[in-house]
Structures
1.
Amino acid sequence: MQVHEYRIKPATPDDIDGARAVMLDTVYRDFGTGYVPRWHGDIVDPVAAYLLPARHTLLVAVDGPGGEVVATAALDSRGPAHPPNPRHLAERYPSGGTAQLRRVYVRPEHRRRGLARRLVEELLAFAAADGGYRAVYLHTDPAVPGAEGFWRSLAKVVHDEREDPGGGQGIVHFEVPMG
């Protein structure tokens, strides 16, 4: 059995290709949507989305001495946009005061080892250290295996679109406690 020694760290320019590969593989394999520019522009240019803005970050988990990126997690200061998200969520979680968790993705062969939880803990510490965030928000597609259960273990559901007339986009929206 191979022993994995994961290291979680802020992404550097050297990590970007590996991080982008994890993200693209996830949107193709787990989401089944493939790359959709209006939803996934940050994946194409994670440097502009997460490395350059002072209040944003992209974390990676690297495996072993070779440093292969096996997981990602990002945070930015953009609240949920309306549309496509419900108006009341855009109003409750405004940009600037909201830390939005994004791209918490782990390669399938590295799942169930606590990596996503460790990455989220680091993102929450980053948000708290910023001092300007009043809430931490995220949304997930419950069709992704394990995603809804994982987020329910860490966060509070603030809106489940599956309960809307017509089912909305089927997305579940969460608030994560900062403390």
2.
Amino acid sequence: MSDSLMIDADATRWAPGDRDGLPLLVMLHGYGSDENDLFGLVPFLPDGIAVASVAAPLTPPWPSPGRSWYPIEGMESRHPDAVTAAARALLHWLDAAASDAPKIALLGFSQGAAVSLQAMRLDAARFGAIVALSGYATPGDLPDDEELRTSQPRVFWGRGTHDDVIPQVLIDHTAQWLPDHSELTGRVYPGLTHSVSEDELQDVRVFLEKWRDGSAN
């Protein structure tokens, strides 16, 4: 899998208003969606932050709509190298589009959550918080994983009891991996499918308010 993926900066949606000097939250959509999908969450997010919603660099095979961060050939196929390539593309986009942001957090759904956590593993010092919704941590080792055991970046991981999209083996792996490599806020929402609920968004808002008001990252 090549690391030459590129995010289309012109497709990025920015929340309106002056963003100079504000903490930046970057949103990463799921498979088959696009930069417009998570933009509907902006009213549920804290005030006093800039928000960008980026478009994934790949197009799913026809006739699937939208875009994707990495290929999924069958629900059991999610190659770690492909997730890493997508995370590197995100880091390159941040270098170009957000080099002046005082601090940065990521909010990803499904595939976007996996890429967000992978970006944290590639450059943990860049991010003050990760919100991973209905996603997972990619199996396999990366060079900075051991450092995460010490730095313990802040992660919110939310998922539903009725989410049958993410394979159970990946849920089990994430449930073991995240507490060992992050300061984890974990929430499981009864009856929730592969989606986001109002209760979850309230929890996310509180989590992001703490990141916004904190002194680091």
3.
Amino acid sequence: MHLTLSAARDLSAAPEPPGGIAGWAAGLVEAFGGPGAGAAIALENVFPPLPSEVILPLTGFAASQGVLSIASALFWTTLGSVVGAVVLYGIGAVFGRERMHAWWAKLPLVKASDLVRTEEWFARHGTKAILLGRMVPVFRSLISVPAGVERMPLPVFVTLTTAGSLVWNTVLVMAGYWLGDQWDVVGAYVGVVSKIVLALAAVALVGYVATRIRGRNRERP
């Protein structure tokens, strides 16, 4: 469905510059409706720098303007999420376990046993990691790669990805729908959460490296 004239004016008046991510996403929704929103989210999954916290609330705002229905917005954005996740799953599957171990062996400050323990952890908790990981900023895309490396059964992966993506998409699309032309507020809050997640990951990485360095120092004669 194409945008009505009034809806087009409303979307173009959104707080994001017309040439920005919001303008690009609005153009896809204007041209293709629900499938356009789905394509934008599929690309967001493959290229995480594209922010779902902008695309999804804007899609909800478009739904509030009558550009598409809520059902269409949720269906197509969830389908896009699954398609993008399957692409990353495929990359992990092609990379494979043997290449992962060969690459891991070349990294400094790591041990083969670390990767083995990670694989064992994923074998025990992979289903929860995929389901919940789809609702965590930043990691919602990356979690698909280890699922492919570990060859999680594809039907299980798709089911968990669909469920987790539907929850995430529903929250952000409905927030944009209810907030109307203030949809950009959603991105501000999710952006704060993303920064917190990245900060925690950075702290964990620094702690891991420091532990490895201390361990190597103790092993020296």
